[in-house]
Amino acid sequence: MTEFPKATLRVGFVGSGFIAHFHLKSMLGVRNVEVTGVYSRSAENRQRFVDQVAELGLGTCTGHDSLESMLRADDMDAIWILSPNYTRLDIMRTIHAEVKAGRSKVFAVACEKPLARTVREAREMLSLATDAGLNHGYLENQVFSTPVLRGKEIIWRRAASTTGRPYLARAAEEHSGPHEPWFWQGDKQGGGVLSDMMCHSVEVARHLLTAPGAPRSSLTVKAVNGTVANLKWTRPHYADQLRARFGAEVDYRNRPSEDFARGTITLEDEDGNELVIEATTSWAYVGAGLRIQLELLGPEYAMEFNSLSTGLKVFMSREVKGSEGEDLVEKQNAEQGLMPVLEDEAGVYGYTDENRHMVECFRKGETPLETFEDGLGVVEMLMGLYRSAETGETVRFPAPELEDYVPVVARRGA
Ligand SMILES: NC(=O)c1ccc[n+]([C@@H]2O[C@H](COP(=O)([O-])OP(=O)(O)OC[C@H]3O[C@@H](n4cnc5c(N)ncnc54)[C@H](OP(=O)(O)O)[C@@H]3O)[C@@H](O)[C@H]2O)c1
Question: How far is the CA of 189 from the centre of ligand 1 (A)?
Fold first, then answer.
């Protein structure tokens, strides 16, 4: 039996890619944690990750060449699943099998967004975690982003308490397109930009509309209406660019996923008040870099945040020449002119507070703010939006037909 609280949570990462390194850096701002393992299929990636853990002073990390080896290690309490969407279920099935058979002492698991590609997969993720007796956390960083933490706290404490609850949340996330080929392949990723990025927008909006301390079930989804479009990457020049960059498997002349999505979600609170989420996402936005826009509106107040309206900006003339990078802002598109800089990306995007929260909950045996159940709820909304976009009709909840629904672009041979 695991005794809580544990003094230190010993974490193992599955995946050593883009998001794994973001999480690792953010762990610098988290107490009572050590990163004691990484499972990667590549010896080179494992070593790079192990070296970085040592450099950051985050513990003694062992590189594992199999997931089973990491799960069976004596120094492993919790797993962070940070690998591509199509690998989730197999990883979770292995964790479940090892824990159930008593070969692993892991007692908690956290999983990156989206929890799964379909409702059926998400439901299995949840049931595997609960059947194995694991504490579980859904890694939706925007819920923990510093402007959301601060903005939500002020709005609800000062404004909503005196003039009434907020009724409209707007959330947008846009950038110029993902960095690895699997994101662009509908079957592997689960869809296009709607599943990749609207998972953030619907959940952060739902969180902003939820009263502090109230369960997510205090809001009920009534109906969803979605639109998807191909704005940029199906244009022949850009489809060819994708193919040249990522190979023949990313074929946007013949098998594109949507690069724009819009969603309206109608909800109801416990008093029968109508609430609305408006979400917009795209892979067709070319600005300085990733742009997150959030708004929360109520009867006598409004909150807004734009991640590119940074306090810190730098200007570099055309004489400043150098290599391309993402050193100023995520998904950066330029190295000259007036550029916004996020001084603390891990904090503003939410990774630091997210990991602090998950580590503390797992260490103490408490239920996190975001669990696999919330991840499942997000996938239900996303599948409703996809179905609405496919049929041209609003989808009313509860919608049992979503149980086996697969978005058009994720169907094999589509
Ligand atoms: N919260 C956010 O804003 C955010 C941002 C980006 C990504 N994400 C999410 O994080 C996840 C990973 O995205 P990423 O951008 O880090 O992708 P990535 O750069 O492609 O990295 C994925 C990693 O997973 C590992 N991997 C690949 N196939 C695997 C398999 N079959 N079994 C085990 N590991 C495997 C790879 O490691 P090896 O090749 O070394 O084995 C690679 O390091 C995705 O679910 C994505 O949606 C979230």
Answer: 11
